[in-house]
Specification:
Length: about 80
């Protein structure tokens, strides 16, 4: 499963964060974006077992370093 979650650095009092979130929610037709903990709880509450969980973007940075292809580069 791949989904969007709030990263620990999310600050609802930061105007730049809130504007980016507004655009994200509008563009994806979402009501809100859950924290990682909320998202994982929703998955387990639905009866699924979480076998692996990681930040996809951080994993790309670890594997490819400066050669990482960011998800937005082909837009």
């Amino acid at each position: 499963m791949f989904d969007y979650y709030l990263l620990p650095g999310w600050n609802p009092n930061d105007p730049e964060h809130t504007e980016n979130m507004r655009k994200h929610l509008y563009g994806n037709g979402s009501a809100r974006t859950p924290s990682i903990a909320e998202g994982l709880k929703m998955v387990t509450d639905a009866g699924f077992e979480i076998v692996e969980n990681y930040d996809f973007m951080a994993r790309g940075d670890e594997i490819y370093g400066e050669n990482v292809w960011q998800w937005w580069e082909d837009l």
